Amino acid sequence: MPRAVVRREHRGGPRTVAQSTYEGRGTGVLPVVPVRARGMTIEGADGRRYLDCLSGAGTLALGHNHPVVLEAIRGIIDSGAPLHAPGPATPVKDAFVTELSRTLPPGLAERARVRFCGPGRDDAVATALRLVRAATGRAGAELADHRTESALGDTASDVRRPAGVIVEPVRDDGGVLPAPDAWLRRLTADRSVPLIVDETLTGVGRTGTFWAVERSGITPDAMVLSAAIGGGLPLAVVVHRDDLALPASRIHTGNQLALAAGTATLAHVRENGLAGHAAALGARMLSRLRTLAGELACVGDVRGRGLLIGVDVVDPEAPSDGTPRDRAAPGLAAAVRRECLRRGLIIGLGGPLASVVRLLPPLTVTEEQAAAVLDRLADALHTAARDHPHGEPRVSGRRHARTG
């Protein structure tokens, strides 16, 4: 069951100069230094080319250096307009709000207000929490999974009601765990606790609908948006019902490049039906991965929505009725990632003990590219299962062929 919490913070680990900082929540640091990139392809400082199946931890909905994003950025630069304009309104900001409003879920769009904040996800989460605290007059608290529904629904409970509940429709850092639609609907039924949906990773078409929450049929009270809404540049906002209000903020997003890139990205995804493309292609990728799970004992559950996919790497000798942590095989998962890199494929790891392979290709991924991703991943899984059964390479004189 996904967690429903009032606050969730993520901290990155140490980084080294010799390694790329091309990473995201739960992905770790990869020994790839990108020097050029286009679409789904990255060229590393080593001269090799890689298929990027992380998309900047979901930030690059259209892949690297998409023409519509570059055109939008150049348009601002060539216009002579200020690159940073901290104020309540600019033509570029107005265009962004207009385009964002076209994409919002029914029920929220008619009453939506867009509140700008600092450029990161944590800034937007903090803003959303202040919003619901001010609206309800209550403080926040974290609720454990098994107590969430009963605590919110039981008026006789001694658990103080929180100011709000924040939920990720797909809990990415936990190993790509989709929240059950029925659970989300029960969570919001006839309750006075505002629901905040964190669409940082799941938004802008990635899960097969423009916003992941649309699948459940619920209307959130507020949405935390970041990552892809900036077209690859730092940008974060909170969209909320008009009856949830805070005093006017002194923070006004002034990065005109991010606003322009975000507008171009939102429009391109909407006008070209890329959410539907993500749903259809993602379903085909899941089907093939589940077939692979039937062939390899080290592949456990395969799950996801759209182009946000998780593959459990498990210890074949662990009891099948154990918990995900009991069955997790982090050493083997690390070996799979190494084998993927040797084959020119960048993947992420997350979930319990970093044992879940995460795939986040850009929404522009083609059928041919998706097939190449799955071919390389399947080959890497077979090789890792044979040569690194416990995550440590066996002594062998054979070298793996490198492709890229």
Description:
This protein has 404 residues and is α+β, with helices and mostly antiparallel strands. 33% of the residues lie in helices and 15% in strands. It has ten helices and 16 strands. The strands form four sheets. A six-stranded mixed β-sheet has the order 1-6-9-10-11-5, covered by helices on one side. The chain has a four-stranded mixed β-sheet with strand order 2-3-4-14. Strands 12-13-16-15 form a four-stranded antiparallel β-sheet. The radius of gyration is 22 Å and the shape is globular. The N terminus and C terminus are likely disordered.
Please count the beta strands (DSSP E, at least 2 residues each): 16
What overall form do the CA principal axes indicate?
Answer: globular
Mean pLDDT: 85
Listing every helix as H and every strand as E from the N terminus to the C terminus, the arrangement reads EEEEHHEHHEEEHEEEHHEEHHEEEH
Low-confidence stretches: 1-28, 393-404
* Strand-pairing-aware structural class: alpha+beta
Q: From the alpha-carbon coordinates, what is the Rg to the nearest angstrom? A: 22 Å
